[in-house]
Specification:
This protein is of the alpha/beta class. The chain is about 45% helix and about 15% strand. GO terms for molecular function: oxidoreductase activity, acting on CH-OH group of donors.
Length: about 240
């Protein structure tokens, strides 16, 4: 596998499992040193580190809750002290609480927006302040923002805001050759996808299946590469023709 990210350093929030894990492993296989940022699942994060090391790569795991500002500052400080200045930041951490709109509580709203929206905003802000010139800032949104879906209004609303952060920030960092983009996965085969939803989602796709985390990770790696130097301010869908 071509190591076109050799010498680069990457931070991926929410990368102990699922799509975040796949992104971290793909970046590492392409040569980047990676920070596995996790909120609570230390054992899974350490497994990702070991997987990277087994590939001959370099990785660290750092506990950080992106809904807490001090955790974000500490996360960046620790990455810089152990791996050096960052070249790639992937804001992936997020939560989903799915129910009819009339059933959401203020606690649901606060926890969702604190993590998915405020957390992403300040992760991206710190990236803009600290990342090397020529760097890549990538936010993981959701292909669901392009669909009419019931029971997901809070989650998709929180992601819609992130897409606008990307558009704004992409116009602010050009002088430093930094690109800012969103990648929006469609229905993807992770532990969050129930069997019933997997069946329904597969029927929506012309390929009659859902996506795999590695397929999302491959797109993220392209956006993180020098080959994507003219891709900026975009929201790239990875949904197999569903959205």
């Amino acid at each position: 596998m071509e190591q076109y990210l050799q010498g680069k350093t990457a931070l991926i929030t929410g990368s102990s499992r699922g799509i975040g894990r796949a992104i971290a492993l793909e970046l590492a296989q392409r040569g980047a040193a990676v920070c596995i940022a996790f909120r609570s699942n230390k054992d899974e994060a350490e497994k990702v580190v070991k997987s990277v090391e087994s590939l001959g790569g370099k990785a660290i795991a750092v506990k950080a809750d992106v809904s807490i500002m001090d955790d974000i500052y500490r996360l960046y400080d620790e990455v810089e002290s152990k791996l050096g200045k960052l070249d790639i930041v992937v804001s992936n951490a997020g939560i989903a609480i799915n129910k009819p709109l009339v059933e959401y509580t203020i606690e649901d709203y606060t926890s969702t927006f604190d993590t998915n929206t405020r957390g992403a905003f300040f992760v991206m802000q710190q990236a803009a302040l600290r990342i090397n010139d020529g760097g890549r800032i990538i936010a993981i949104s959701s292909g669901g923002t392009k669909l009419l879906l019931s029971g997901t209004s809070l989650y998709l609303g929180s992601k819609g805001a992130v897409e606008q952060f990307v558009r704004g920030l992409s116009k602010e960092l050009g002088a430093r050759n930094i690109t800012v983009n969103a990648v929006s996965p469609g229905f993807t085969n992770t532990e969050l996808l129930t069997e019933d939803l997997r069946t329904i989602a597969a029927e929506m796709s012309p390929f009659n299946r859902v996506g795999e985390p590695q397929e999302v990770a491959a797109v993220v790696c392209f956006v993180a590469s020098s080959q994507a130097s003219w891709v900026n301010g975009q929201n790239i869908g990875v949904g197999g023709g569903v959205m």
